[in-house]
Amino acid sequence: MSTPPRRPRPKITWWMRIKHRLRYLESPLALRGSIIRLRHRHKHPYLALLRLCMPTATFSWSYPVPTPPSPLALIENPDLGWERRYDNNIKSLETVPIWRSRDTPLRCLYRLYEAIMGGDEMLPVVGYETEYFFRQGRRAWELHRIPDPRDPDPIRYALLACILESLLDSFNWRLSIGMRRDGNHIPPTNWDGVNNPYAPYEPMTLPSWPQQVPPVDKQYLKDVMPERVIDSQGLLMLHTDGKDEIFTKRNIAATGHKFWTI
Fold first, then answer.
1. Range of the domain at 122
2. Are β-strands 252-253 and 236-237 bridged in parallel, bridged antiparallel, or unpaired?
3. What is the total count of domains within the chain?
4. Dihedral class, residue 49 (left if φ above 0, else alpha if ψ from -120 to 50, else beta)
5. Cβ 65 vs Cβ 108: under 8 Å
6. Whether this model's pTM surpasses 0.85
7. Residue 136 in contact with residue 99, Cβ under 8 Å?
């Protein structure tokens, strides 16, 4: 029986090689992935990507902090936080490198403020934003470099301080178990029963302004907030099991367990 003829080897031209390289070409901007994300909400994703590169009104690369809703507005309309998050397409934009490069830690703090004020239903967003914040390893995102927002609303200002203090504890815990903000996590060594198996780390610190933020006056809370969100001790009750000490010391009953998700 004669052997079948060998199949001729396909001829790979230089143009085929170039097309293959262009098809799988990647850049730190992840443009292909960004277009896919933007296509979910934009009819013209390339124009949407181009708009992300346009300067702000002050010709600053970083986006300004948008005008935050008042605590009363978030209490009276529990869906407001979700609506703002959906309308601004935050979840998708946080995966777009160009948008991330223009985002700021203060903007993220205010997103966390809206999530905390959103009650139990928005607690998962606290976990999302905390993990997003931790992954931003740029110099401006170091906790001790976050500027004082000097927010005129005493409730909002107190919450921002509480959030930053909660981030400090949760970030140092992540570092203590070998996680790193640049993604180069260090796995633990074999535990000998005595020595710490995790790699040493340099603890993060806070700026001075959170320590100077006073508790919210209880009488002020009674004057501006509905009676249904003030508990028997005069605290602003945001979550069902709101007993976190960082928040209660500023007369706010909120839970902080979602800061510790990984």
1. 30-52+61-186+198-260
2. parallel
3. 1
4. alpha
5. no
6. yes
7. no
